[in-house]
UniProtKB/TrEMBL annotation:
A matching Pfam family: ABC_tran
Keyword Nucleotide-binding attached: yes
SUPFAM superfamilies, sorted: P-loop containing nucleoside triphosphate hydrolases
ABC transporter domain residues: 7-235
Coiled-coil region: none
Source organism (scientific name): Flaviaesturariibacter amylovorans
PROSITE patterns: ABC_TRANSPORTER_1 (PS00211), ABC_TRANSPORTER_2 (PS50893)
InterPro entries per UniProt: AAA+_ATPase, ABC_transporter-like_ATP-bd, ABC_transporter-like_CS, P-loop_NTPase
Protein family according to the UniProt entry: Belongs to the ABC transporter superfamily.
Keyword Protein biosynthesis attached: no
Protein's name in the database: ATP-binding cassette domain-containing protein
Keywords annotated in UniProt: ATP-binding, Nucleotide-binding, Transport
Higher taxonomy: Bacteria, Pseudomonadati, Bacteroidota, Chitinophagia, Chitinophagales
PANTHER family, per database record: ABC TRANSPORTER, ATP-BINDING PROTEIN
One Gene Ontology MF term: ATP binding
Length: 304
């Protein structure tokens, strides 16, 4: 990958009104060739950020660079290299997949052959005379992505594309995103509030909450951050005495027993030896890493 990020924002901030600060100092780095998952609860600022990247909102504060160029100095050239799907796809229900693409073809300067290419890419090449209003939601979403692919973009931006999809549709979408990245060399920025789904397709992650970035890095880095939250679940014959004995492990007593922090299996064994050596019976010893969904919740509620 190139050293310079394909997308770089510096201090990106935005207000919809004097009293509502929607974004605060967003420094987004999207590496060329990556699948970047932009995550946050609904209303956290994801769509506002993506709209700023696409010039759909006027930038108020901070800088936006895409392909190494300042967006507002080179807007037309930059946007010609980007495909996007923001919010509800614009489809004509009475037209076929091919006819929908034909409506937009001249706008993007695409050839007729490109229509066949993108329909094959998204798996809609055999829909024939079936009109879009009879498509499943997953098919409609893939057709909307086909529209975004007409200009053969280097960068694809997808805002909450799995919203409303059933499990089969989500699996199809995941496979398509990976295919576009792997086989067509496309950098993809995809927003979602569903960490469990996004982690199955992305290489990099940014987590936003109330307009502020809470984490940014590789998926492996997020997993490493996750391991820092690992806890050991214990049930003993005397949880209060165990808590006092294990003070350096940041113990917490709950209704279901005792929870202590740990880093490795050697510490688990040492904890067990210490308790039994003091005559405390250990009924349950269950190491558990913080799952990614819980980590997501922790990150996005820490400053609530």
């Amino acid at each position: 990958m190139d050293q310079q990020p394909l997308i770089r924002t510096t201090g990106l901030s935005y207000r919809y009104s004097r009293d509502v600060q929607t974004l605060s100092g967003i420094n987004l780095h999207v590496e060329r060739g990556s699948i970047y998952g932009f995550l946050g609860p609904n209303g956290s600022g994801k769509t506002t950020t993506l709209s700023l990247l696409l010039g759909l909102l006027n930038n108020q504060a901070g800088d936006i660079e895409i392909f190494g160029q300042h967006l507002h100095r080179n807007r037309e050239a930059i946007l010609g290299r980007i495909g996007s799907l923001i919010e509800t796809p614009s489809l004509y229900g009475h037209l076929t997949a091919r006819e929908n693409l034909e409506v937009y073809r001249s706008t993007y300067g695409a050839s007729k052959a490109r229509i066949d290419e993108v329909l094959d890419i998204v798996g809609l090449g055999d829909t024939g005379r079936k009109v879009a209003k009879k498509f499943s939601l997953g098919m409609k979403q893939r057709l909307a992505i086909a529209l975004a692919l007409l200009p053969a973009p280097e960068l694809l931006i997808l805002d909450e594309p799995s919203n409303g999809l059933d499990p089969a549709g989500i699996i199809e979408l995941r496979a398509l995103v990976k295919k576009l990245n792997r086989e067509h060399g496309m950098t993809i920025l995809i927003s979602s509030h569903l960490l469990g789904e996004i982690e199955k397709m992305v290489s990099h992650v940014g987590i936003i909450y109330k307009g502020k970035m809470q984490f940014q890095g590789t998926l492996a880095g997020l997993h490493g951050f996750q391991r820092q939250g690992a806890r050991l679940h214990l049930r003993t014959s005397d949880n209060e005495a165990a808590r006092l004995l294990l003070g350096e492990y940041a113990p917490r007593v709950g209704a279901d027993g005792l929870h202590v922090a740990f880093e490795n299996n050697a510490q688990v064994a040492a904890i067990n030896r210490r308790l039994t050596g003091q005559g405390i019976d250990v009924f349950l010893l269950h190491p558990k890493e913080s799952d990614l969904e819980q980590l997501f919740i922790d990150l996005t509620t820490a400053h609530a």
